[in-house]
Amino acid sequence: MGGEDQARCNLGVVEVDSGNIDRALKHFMIAAGGGYADSLKNIKQMLMKGHATKDDYAAALEARQAYLDEIKSDQRDEAASYDERYKYYS
């Protein structure tokens, strides 16, 4: 339950494939709160298919932004300016 955000997003994909839309959305929201960008894409797809609301997507965006604000530092910004691999935001 406290695992990696990419794994949480993958669980969301499995839940979507199984038809468990509410559970999938929960997994994607947790992954978004951990900063995983692909979860936002999945929630957006759910929104386009009518399985998520605009409020769900807005909450995911806010959660990801809160994560990015929390980890922001001058050292990370400097590293990102030297090499794209160190870019922690998209």
Write the layout of secondary structure elements.
Elements: H1 5-18, H2 21-33, H3 37-48, H4 54-71, H5 74-82
Helix pairs in contact: 1-2, 2-3, 2-4, 3-4
Give structural notes.
The radius of gyration is 14 Å and the shape is elongated. The two termini are 26 Å apart. The mean pLDDT is 90. Helices cover 73% and strands 0% of the residues. It has five helices and no strands. By secondary structure, it is an all-alpha fold. Helix 2 runs antiparallel to helix 3 (37-48) and helix 2 packs parallel to helix 4 (54-71). The chain has helices at residues 5-18, 21-33, 37-48, 54-71, 74-82. The relative contact order is 0.13.
Give a quick precis of the structure.
The protein has 90 residues and is mostly helical. The chain has five helices and no strands.
Oligomer: single chain
Q: Give the mean pLDDT.
A: 90
The shape, in one word, is: elongated
- Look at the helices and sheets and give the structural class: mainly alpha
Low-confidence stretches: none
Beta fraction of the residues? Answer: under 5%
Summed up, the helix count is: 5
Mind summarizing the main beta sheet?
Answer: none
Radius of gyration: 14 Å
Count of β-strands: 0
* Strand/helix succession: HHHHH
Alpha-carbon distance between the two ends: 26 Å
Helix content: over 70%
Overview features:
single chain; mainly alpha; 5 helices; 0% strand
